[in-house]
Amino acid sequence: MKSVFLYIYDLQEETVAVLIGVFFAVVSWLFSAAATRRLSRKQHTINLLMNSGMDPAIKAAMELVRDNLNSKKCPSFSSVKDAPKRVAFRLLLNHFEFVAAGLRNGDLDEQLVYDSECHTILDLYNTYLPNIEKRQKERNLGTLYEHTAWLSKRWRGQRPLSWRRFWQLLRD
Q1: How far is 162 from 169, CA to CA, in rounded Å?
Q2: How far, in Å, CA of 132 to CA of 55, rounded?
Q3: What is the pLDDT of residues 111-151, one digit of tens each?
Q4: Of 76 and 98, which is predicted with more confidence?
């Protein structure tokens, strides 16, 4: 009887050792997967920013609206003369709406986008806001540039906080 008890005791020690080994293997895999996800998000963000910086249509649109951004003057909603500027603003805002949706869903790295495009996004949105509001009322589109509006409110006067980045790490 004593030998059976010792056999069961030895078996339990081995089981505990195996369970501890499995636990640490799973934990290390989880940390590795989270690190890979973070690096992948950063790489995806850098690719997006680099490609958009090299895009001739975006470059041309930025040149076209630069004077309006510097003067904070929105192009006229009905003027035929300002039609090319309105098209340029919409092209840029649609691009940054895509970026804002990626940030909101956690697919892009917020700190990288903030460091490189914060003022461009905020200036574009705030300068063109009167026309955005007119189009929303005219076409009954309350969701027009909703992600860019969310980003504008989020970044207005503040940097992305470190606790937000902490939650982003936990979300991965």
Answers
A1: 11
A2: 24
A3: 899 999 999 999 999 999 998 998 888 888 778 899 999 99
A4: 98
One-letter identity of residue 137:
K
Q: Residue with structure tokens 């009954």? A: 140
In total, the chain counts a number of residues equal to 172
- Is residue 52 packed enough to be buried (19+ CB in 10 Å), middle (13-18) or exposed (0-12)? middle
CA dist., res. 145 & res. 95, Å (int): 10
* Contact in structure between 74 and 127 (CB atoms under 8 Å): yes
The pair of structure tokens assigned to 101 is 């949706």
Tokens standing for residue 141: 């589109």
Which pTM was predicted?
0.75
Distance of alpha carbon 172 from alpha carbon 170, whole angstroms: 5
